[in-house]
């Protein structure tokens, strides 16, 4: 096993909204823990609680994002929420598939690609709207 984190956080992944950036780092950190536990041969007694933490963290994060997008009148909020719903669904299905087929790499790879892609391609689109909201005195 090598000594490198599965996903190395880069400041290039910051979208400039502190609460969102902080939560994104937390999600990536939880995925790294999941990867570490799998690579070091831990069983379901630690993998399952880690998946539960990840799911709950993602839920809190999406609620934060969606509330801010709503308040900022982000025009593409509906499409963005659909992407969130699909991620939740796919993560659930893949974690069932991964545990019944003993194939953890499939879920780790999916989580890594989805999160880095989503942050850098989709979340960056709402960033200017949220920045404007958070900078305004009315918030
Ligand atoms: Fe998002």
Automatic annotation (TrEMBL):
Q: Name one GO molecular function term.
A: metal ion binding
Keyword annotations of the record: Iron, Metal-binding, Oxygen transport, Transport
- SUPFAM superfamilies, alphabetically? Hemerythrin-like
Provide an example Pfam family for this protein: Hemerythrin
Q: Which InterPro entries match?
A: Haemerythrin_Fe_BS (IPR016131), Hemerythrin (IPR050669), Hemerythrin-like (IPR012312), Hemerythrin-like_sf (IPR035938), Hemerythrin_metal-bd (IPR012827)
Please report the stretch or stretches of sequence annotated as the Hemerythrin-like domain.
16-130
Q: Which family does it belong to?
A: Belongs to the hemerythrin family.
Mind telling me which PANTHER family this protein's record contains?
A: BACTERIOHEMERYTHRIN
Q: What is this protein called?
A: Hemerythrin
Give the organism's phylogenetic lineage. Answer: Bacteria, Pseudomonadati, Thermodesulfobacteriota, Desulfobulbia, Desulfobulbales
